Amino acid sequence: MLCVMDENLPVTAIISQVVKPGYEEAYEQWQKDITVAAHQFEGHAGVNIIRPHDHTYPEYVIILRFDHYQNLKTWIESDVRKYWLDRAKPLIQGSEKVQVLQGLEAWFTLPGRPTQAPPARYKMAILTSIAVYLVSLIVGYFFSGFLVSLPIWLQSLVLISLSVVLLTYFVMPRLTRVFYRWLYPQARK
Which residues cross the membrane (predicted)? Predict the structure, then answer.
């Protein structure tokens, strides 16, 4: 489901699909093919696939990033994507679920959890500040010695890039799980 978003910010689509038992290999090939097709679209900024750990419920989660909302919308509504979704119908159970996020919201989404409104902004800011502070300290402590011979701009680029990767793929998903009840108090009900 697409909605109105800030045109200038990067956007992430979280797509989940449940694969029919016995079709995992065909789905993996389909996933490679549709990823190549998506990569041809303007603004495509990468894709990550989270494969199922529980083979009794083989849900794949695809994290698709575009440089801004209009380019994502162009891909989502394209005939090329519709073609690939038609090819996936025999491989998946039901229909796909799509959630579109922008900004910090993408860090506070857990695969397998029902779609819901993002946490309060002050909670996202607090948790993000703590995470960035800790990751900056750790990355700086362990890697700054290796980078001392590089120009300052390159040191910063390496440290920031490493911090963002750690935050996006390791730290924020784990912090979101740990603080889930605080971030989403309505989930207790």
Answer: 124-146, 152-172
